[in-house]
Structures are given as structure tokens and as C-alpha cells.
Amino acid sequence: MPVIPSVYQNFDDKMRRILYNVLSAKTILYKSNQMISYSMGKRNVIGIVEQGQVRMIRYEYTGERTILDEFDEGDIFSDMFVESDFSELSVEAITNCAVTFIDYEEMISKAESSKLALQFLNNFIHVISHTLVKRNERIELLTTRSIRNKLLAYFELQAKKSNSKTFNLNYSYTDLADYLAVDRSALMRELKYLKEEKFISDVNKKITLLY
Amino acid sequence: MPVIPSVYQNFDDKMRRILYNVLSAKTILYKSNQMISYSMGKRNVIGIVEQGQVRMIRYEYTGERTILDEFDEGDIFSDMFVESDFSELSVEAITNCAVTFIDYEEMISKAESSKLALQFLNNFIHVISHTLVKRNERIELLTTRSIRNKLLAYFELQAKKSNSKTFNLNYSYTDLADYLAVDRSALMRELKYLKEEKFISDVNKKITLLY
DNA sequence: TTTTGTCTGTTGCAATTGCAACAAAAAAAC
DNA sequence: GTTTTTTTGTTGCAATTGCAACAGACAAAA
Question: What phi-psi label fits residue B52: left (phi over 0), alpha (psi between -120 and 50 degrees) or beta?
Fold first, then answer.
């Protein structure tokens, strides 16, 4: 079972408080559907999702929407990880959530003198690495050559993550289509074929791989 | 003009030698087309491309090939960044090249005591961040909804990187198709249309955006 | 509790894409 | 400099996908 790294690995509450004090971290609360704007001028800022769920979304001028990434508790996001002027990106709170912001340079410079900050830095790297893994997975999904293969690859990934052939979809099909970058109705059609051909079963959002 | 981060930022040759000594780094030479196997048992190993060009490729059992990523001088790759058992991945030397391998835990633990190692760690994070940016770009390309849009998005990215409407393709069209995950002949056809409709000109691999 | 909005499920039709197959050009190997 | 391999360029045809439009289910808000 893969361990999902967290920036708080080996940290208890007290250590966390000390650390956040050392790093001058700020925690901000957002309501669901609220926009999160975190680019504070020229500084490299890191956002840590403490609670709730956050998504990075691209809106095309055509009205097309693509879910670029989803961040859950313990995930981090940062403008350091995004080329800003490629297209219109926004980060949105999906649920009510709490996000802590840290200044990157602060984190590095404090790592020299504070063991806690170095440990945090270490955790931070593991989290970025894991983010990279997620991105790679995404790329692997997107580079499969048909909707059928995209769906199966996605389902297999979910099955692997939940360690079972049966799992609950936590995307709506509308969102899944945006995530896999395909037309929703075409996705529904392919899903129907997959059910008809007994590749999967789908009892309202509970998917089972039948092979 | 965006600065591409390097793990050797602020390092001269002497510092680099000292650092590599501290970290017990090993540099290995590969001939072009040679396979690079870098997973040294259970350790987290980081490969730094010193010279030449390296690609990460997925081969499907169907014979399909997808170029997942390309690493140039100063880029890093690591098994930390890849979920190993998803599909058959290989890392291959495209040209003759030199790759330095570093043990991740070594890098972290030495950062505490060695200023040089901490600086290297800092650089390392910037490089990973940049890798993430590249992955995001890739995802943005892959999530556009047609071959035409993929091509245009790719061309625009290259134009932006070379800071000019004219630039040289360094992929063959065969490779570009594998990179954009589309059929080669379909890509050629779309390219023809783009030329006919005066969106671009293409004088043997020198592309110009005409809009 | 009604209203409003979003999500699911479906379908015909058109557009796009992939596949297969081939010839010519270019590049690499000998 | 000749041979071999790879890449480019093209096309007809079939399969897949997107688009548009709709009805019903479901959820959220008033």
C-alpha cells in the first residue's frame, strides 16, 4: 500500500506550531466555491491544504473547462509549479477549507539553523515528488489513445489506490470528462458499452472491474 | 525570459567536485540508444543529466510508444518521481551522455552539516519545481481537444521559449506524434491543413507562426 | 414545498481521428 | 558510394469522437 507523504510527517501539533511560528506561516479559511488567490507579489508562496479540497482549473475562452489538478488535505500547491502566462488558471475551494501559506525562501533559509525546518523541507520534497508522480499518472491517462482506454486506465488506477476491484467514484461524470479531457456524452456512451460488454459494473458511482 | 534552474546554480567546478565528494556521487557515461537503469534497489536515487539528452518512454504491449518526458543537460530524473508498476517505462540515452547519480537520503542528511549540500538541496527543489511546470505544460497540451489545437499549443510554447515566431523543431514528426499522443498520419494531415490555411509555414522543420 | 439548477443518460449526425498501406526523401550504417 | 533504415508525405476507408439537443433524475436553494 503506497504511503502518501505529508508535509507533517513526524510532526506533532506542538512541533507544527513552533515550526509555523519560525516560518511566519499564515492560515486562511475559505468557503466552498471561493477563489483562492495566493500569488503574493513576487514571492514564491507555498499553499498547504490543511482541511478540505481545492482544485486548479483552466477556463478556456471557448467556455471549455479542464480540471488540471485536485489538492486534498496535506497536498501543496504553489505558483512555483505553474507557468503563469500560458492560460487562465484559477484555484478554487471545492469544500470549506483551510490553507496555510509559507514563504519558500523563508523555508530554505531557516532550514540551515532549525532542525524542525529541515525536517519540514525534507517532507516538502517528498510531497513535491509525490505531486510529480500524480502528474505522471495524469499524463499516462491522457496519452492513452481512446476514451475506452482512458476510462479503463482511470478505473484501474482507482482500483489500485483503494486496493480493491470495487471503489467509489468521487468525481461526477461531468467532472471526470473534464479530467480526462473528453466530451461528456462520448464518455457516457463508452461507459455504456463497457457495462454492456461486462468490463465493468456501475451501481450509482460504485464501480467494479469485472476482469 | 524564463530562467531554467540548474542544480549547479552558484556552483563553480571546484565546489561541484567537493559537493560530489561529500555526497558520494557517481558519474556514468552512456552511449546513444543505451538503456539507463538507475533503480538501485530500494534507495531513492536521483539522476542528473550532465551532458547529452535522455528520454523516458513507455512501450505498450501493442507496440504503441509514448514519449513521456525528455531530460536535457541540468535536468534530473528519479524513481521517486515515478509510480513504478503502472506500466513499462524505460529511460534511454538519446545521444551520448553523462549522468551523475546521487542518493537522496545522503543529500538530505548532509544538508544539515554542509552549506554546499544545503545550497544544492535548494537548487534541487527549484529544478523539481521546474519539472512540475514542464509536466503542467505537457498536461495543458494533452488536454486540448483536437490535433490542431495540440499542434498550435505546442508551436506556441516553442515560440514562447525561443522568444520568436520562428523556431526549429527538434522533434521528428514521428516523435512529435508520440509526444502529443496522436496518430502520426493524422498529425501530418492536420499539419498540411495548417499550412494550406496559412496558420503556419514549415520550411523543413523551421516553423513560423503566421498569426 | 416548490423552484431552480446541475447531473445523468441518450441519440442522430457530422467532423475528426486512427489504421493500413504505399512511395519518395532523407539519414544512418556499412 | 552504396545499401539499409528511418522519416516524411499522402490517401481511402472505417472507427471513434464531438456536438447539439433533449428528457428525466437528483440536489440545492428559496
Answer: left
Burial, B211: exposed, middle or buried (Cβ in 10 Å; 0-12, 13-18, 19+)? exposed
- Does the pTM exceed 0.90? no
**In chain B, residues 124 through 163 whose Cβ sits under 7 angstroms from any atom of nucleic acid strand C:** 145-148
d(CA A67, CA B148): 21
Q: Which residue is nearest to nucleotide C26 (CA to C1')?
A: B204
Q: What is the DSSP letter of A23?
A: T
Burial (Cβ within 10 Å: 0-12, 13-18, ≥19) of residue B197: exposed
Instruction: Write out pLDDT tens, residues B132-146.
Output: 888 888 998 999 989
What Cα–Cα distance (Å) separates residue A58 from each residue in A85, B140, B201? 12, 9, 29
Query: Distance between CA atoms of B90 and B88, rounded to whole angstroms?
Result: 7
- pLDDT tens digits, one per residue of A105-156: 899 888 888 888 888 998 999 889 888 888 888 998 999 989 999 999 999 9
- Answer for the pair A129, B128: CB distance below 8 angstroms, yes or no: yes
Q: How far apart are the first and last CA of chain B?
A: 21
Residue B173, CB, strand D, below 7 Å? yes
CB contact under 8 A, B140 and A87: yes
Q: What is the pLDDT of residue A86?
A: 46
Q: Which residue has the higher pLDDT, B147 or B33?
A: B147
**CA–CA distance, B210 with B69 (Å, rounded to integer):** 28
- pLDDT, mean of residues B188-197: 94
Distances in Å between the Cα of A46 and the Cα atoms of A20, A102, A104, A168, B139 are: 13, 5, 6, 31, 21
- Three-state SS string over B80-100 comes to HHCCCCCCCEEEEECCCEEEE
Q: Give the integer Cα–Cα distance in Å for B14 and A29.
A: 48
